[in-house]
Each structure stands twice: as C-alpha cells, then as structure tokens.
C-alpha cells in the first residue's frame, strides 16, 4: 500500500481544507471519506443545503409579502417542493464536485471507505492498511439524541436536521424541538413554505448564550414571521404514528404536562462529536468528558503523530472553525507555525434578518467586572436598509471603557453575516472603536450601521 506524510480522516470542511494545505506545503497527502461524496456534514446535509432552502424560501417570502408594495403585482409563485429539493441537490452537487476537483488538483488521494487506526502511523480502509507519518482526525459530528425521542428520517415524522432537508412533503404542522441556530433556520424555511411552526425550547431565550438584546429582537421578528414559541418547556417524549406525532412537554414554571400535535417533529437539540469505529480506545487516545478528542494547543492528541480538528474536538461546531484548525494543524505538521484565534470566531444565523456575533457578549464582560461601553445603532437609521425594506434590527458594538479596544459585537439585520467581518478584522488588528468610526464607509451601504455603532461609542452616531 502507498505510504503518506499525512492521512486525513473525514472530508468535511475541516478535513478537506487540512488536506489541501498539507498538499500545498509539499506533504504527500491522502483523505479518507466514508460518504459517497466529499464535503462532510457541511456540504451534504448542513450549511450548504440549508442555505439553498433558506434562499429559495426567502424569494417566496419576498414575492408573497413585499413585492406588491414595490409595485410588483400579480400572482405569487406556487411551491413545487420536489423542484426546490432538486435545486438544493444541484447546489450540493456543485459544491461536493468542487471539492473533488480540488482534491485532484492538489494530487490528494481519496481513499474511499470508513477508516480505522490500528496503530499510530497506520490507517485501515476496507482491507487495506496505509502507512503514514501523521494522521489528522476530522471525523466531525452527528445530531445528538433526546431522551424519549426516536428519530427516524426515513419515516419522515420525527426527524433530525438531515431528515428535515428531505421531507417528502411540506408539513401542515411542524414542531421544532430546540431554538438554536439549526432549529430556527429550518423552522424559518418551513414557516415560509406555509407550515404552522411551533418551536419548543427548554431555556427562556432563543439561541442560548447569545447577546440578550439580540435574543429578544430575534424572537419578536420570528414571531412576526409566523413562528410560535413555547419557552421554558422540558420535552418529555414524542409519540409518533405513521403520519402524526405528539410532543409532550413539562412547563419548567410548573403545571400539567402539555401536548402539541404535529405532522413532523424536528429534533434540533444539538450535535455531538463523532469518533466511532476509529479504534481510539484501543490506541489510548484521551477524550474529554463531553466525548470530544482531547488535543493540545497544536491540535495534537496524546498519541504522537495523531492530530484532531473540527467538530470532533472542543469549541464551537462551525465549519469555519474546523477549516481554520485544519489549516493550522497542517502548518504544524509541516514544521511551521499554526494559529487559530478562538476569541474571534464569528457565529451567524442565516434567517432573514441575519444574526451575527463575534467576541465577548455584554453580559459576559459585565459578569467579569470589566468596564465596557456599548454603542448601538438601529437599521431604521440606515438609508440602504430602508430602501430594501429591511430596517429591523441593530448593530451593537462593545469596547473597553478605558482603551476603546473593540471586544465584541452582535448584529441583527440585513447582511449581518457579512458585516460582522469588518469587526472581526478590526479585532484581529486590535482596533479601537474610533478606528472603525474614522474609517470612511461607502454610502448607502448596510456597513454604515457598523460605523454608526462605533460613532455611538464616541461623540455620538449621526443618524440616530
Ligand atoms: P464534518 O463536516 O461533520 O465532516 C466529517 C466527515 O468525516 C463526514 O463526512 C463523515 O462521513 C466523515 N467520517 C467520519 N468518520 C469517518 C471514518 N471513520 N472514516 C471515513 N470518514 C469518516 N456551520 C457553519 O459554520 N455555518 C452554517 O451555516 C452551518 N449550518 C449547518 C446546518 C446544519 C443543518 C447542520 C447539521 C450543521 C451546520 N453547520 C454550520 C455546522 C457544520 O456543518 C459543521 O460545523 C462542520 O461540518 C464541521 O466540519 P468537520 O470537518 O469537523 O466535520
């Protein structure tokens, strides 16, 4: 069998990006993937298909709710759900095909099948054992289970996010368990398609851990879009028949058990690291208490020559975090310096409006006793946002009260997922809020709202 400098296990955004960087750095590289296509969770059943459906249903929402007032009159489009899924599949195919092209371009061998590690320096795929100096485990994550709830994506009644991307028809009533990013994105898709969507959440706020102002505004906006929320509800179980389900929950505030009927229940209560079948136990690879592979600051496990990155290790389960770790681990393997700044990893929710955050929250900084100042600017004061009918939401910028250094931001509004990067770059360069405020921003752009929030931290925003 061939022998390699690096074998990467798992071709998600962490794994395939790591493999490319390894190859670029002159290392003989192979990647192992058990799925039929490359790209991992993100490209096959995660980021990309969900964004394709969000995009398609956003167009529908615009046509139904906003076209007429702009003078665009006439029949709204009708939904051909099978065609919409075909569109989503085409988008997936373009992306996974693109990764396959990149593997070939970079002369990375794709070893097809499920890998195990019989010993350090060896990777078994099927009956073949390949020799390698280094192994990068990028085996990702899978949806986590909820006690009392059996997911069956094929039956299509109680599903996880993977099943929700493939429902045979648009349900009349959908219950989403979990008001996190995945639940709200997919809940939005179905609400726009006409489903009655009820989101049941154990905590008292959506997107736990996010800026509180954003949580409140986000929930209100989603309610206006037709989603219903049951907060502080502990789901006890789901009873499913062939076509219907009953979700039972106990209100945390007390009272009797409640039941909600649904045609489809989406269980979106989080994801867990996936390392099954790799043989890590026998190798003595240390794991964290939460089932993640334990690594040091160089993404090395306790077994020399074995690295791990992405969703299977600690940290936010995000594609771009996995990619950054993939590149950094490759640099380390090549004897260079690899670095990821975990303080500046943006998080985005791709609903309309989008929500984006980076750095510390106002609450966390206050709890630390840090002296901070907060600048806020509403999109209602932004000409471009009004021109496109998206004046809801705001930019919140947080800076150190003494040094003016930007410590974090939370944005809810148009293009928030893009706007956040101005702040990320600023934070990487140690920018002060004044640096952003003194930077000329083109008019009329959404990004002027970021500048105005920075101005609000100084002598005051102009348009509020
Ligand atoms: P994965 O993408 O999970 O890839 C791991 C790969 O390893 C899989 O293909 C698996 O088949 C393979 N594998 C595992 N074990 C083996 C083995 N033994 N042998 C061979 N192959 C193996 N993140 C964002 O940043 N933005 C988003 O908008 C976003 N949206 C999402 C929407 C949904 C519905 C979901 C489910 C997730 C979303 N995520 C999003 C999260 C994102 O998909 C993950 O954070 C990201 O895919 C993690 O990358 P990874 O490379 O660590 O692992």
From TrEMBL:
Q: Where does FAD bind?
A: 51, 311, 317-320
- Gene3D superfamilies listed in its UniProt record: 3.30.390.30, FAD/NAD(P)-binding domain
Active-site residues, Swiss-Prot/TrEMBL: 443 (proton acceptor)
| Record-annotated FAD/NAD(P)-binding domain positions | 4-326
Keywords (alphabetical) are: Disulfide bond, FAD, Flavoprotein, NAD, Nucleotide-binding, Oxidoreductase, Redox-active center
Sites where the protein binds NAD(+): 178-185, 201, 270
Q: Which cofactor does it need?
A: FAD
| Top-rank taxon, per record | Bacteria
Q: Which PROSITE patterns match?
A: PYRIDINE_REDOX_1
- Additional notes on this entry: The active site is a redox-active disulfide bond.
Entry's PANTHER family? Answer: DIHYDROLIPOYL DEHYDROGENASE, MITOCHONDRIAL, DISULFIDE OXIDOREDUCTASE
Annotated family: Belongs to the class-I pyridine nucleotide-disulfide oxidoreductase family.
Identification of the protein by name: Dihydrolipoyl dehydrogenase
């Amino acid at each position: 069998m061939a022998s390699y400098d690096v074998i990467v296990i798992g071709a998600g955004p962490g794994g395939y990006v790591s493999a490319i960087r390894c190859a670029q750095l002159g290392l003989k590289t192979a990647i192992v993937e058990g799925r039929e296509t490359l790209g991992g969770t993100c490209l096959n059943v995660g980021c990309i298909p969900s964004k394709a459906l969000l995009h398609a249903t956003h167009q529908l929402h615009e046509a139904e709710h906003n076209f007429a007032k702009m003078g665009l009159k006439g029949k709204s489009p009708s939904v051909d759900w099978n065609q919409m899924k075909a569109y989503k599949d085409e988008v997936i195919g373009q992306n996974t095909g693109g990764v396959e092209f990149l593997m070939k371009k970079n002369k990375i061998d794709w070893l097809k099948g499920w890998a195990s590690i019989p010993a350090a320096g060896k990777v078994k795929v099927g009956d073949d054992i390949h020799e390698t100096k280094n192994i990068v485990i990028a085996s990702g994550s899978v949806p986590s289970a909820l006690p009392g709830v059996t997911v069956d994506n094929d039956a299509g009644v109680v599903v996880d996010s993977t099943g929700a991307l493939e429902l045979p028809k648009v349900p009349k009533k959908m219950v989403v368990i979990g008001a996190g990013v995945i639940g709200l994105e997919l809940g939005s898709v179905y609400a726009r398609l006409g489903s009655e969507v009820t989101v049941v959440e154990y905590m008292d706020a959506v997107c736990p851990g996010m800026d509180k102002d954003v949580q409140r505004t986000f929930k209100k906006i989603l309610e206006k879009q037709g989603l219903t929320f049951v907060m502080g509800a502990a789901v006890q179980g789901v009873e499913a028949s062939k076509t219907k389900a009953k979700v039972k929950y106990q209100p945390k505030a007390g009272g009797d058990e409640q039941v909600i009927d649904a045609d489809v229940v989406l269980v979106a209560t989080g994801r867990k690291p996936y390392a099954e079948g790799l043989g890590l136990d026998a190798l003595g690879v240390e794991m964290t208490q939460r089932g993640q592979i334990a690594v040091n600051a160089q993404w090395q496990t306790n077994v020399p020559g074995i690295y791990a990155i992405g969703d299977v290790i600690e940290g936010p389960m995000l594609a771009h975090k996995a990619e950054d770790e993939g590149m950094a681990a490759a640099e380390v393997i090549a004897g260079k310096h690899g670095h990821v700044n975990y303080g500046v990893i943006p998080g985005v929710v791709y609903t309309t409006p989008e929500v984006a955050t980076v750095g510390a929250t106002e609450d966390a900084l206050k709890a630390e006793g840090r002296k901070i100042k907060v600048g806020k600017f509403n999109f209602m004061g932004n000409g471009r946002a009004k021109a496109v009918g998206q004046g809801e939401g705001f930019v919140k910028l947080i800076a150190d009260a003494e040094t003016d250094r930007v410590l974090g931001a939370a944005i809810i509004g148009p293009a928030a997922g893009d706007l956040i990067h101005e702040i990320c770059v600023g934070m990487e360069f140690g920018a002060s809020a004044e640096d952003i405020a003194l930077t000329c921003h083109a008019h009329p752009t959404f990004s002027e709202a970021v500048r105005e929030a920075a101005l609000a931290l100084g002598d005051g925003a102009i348009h509020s």
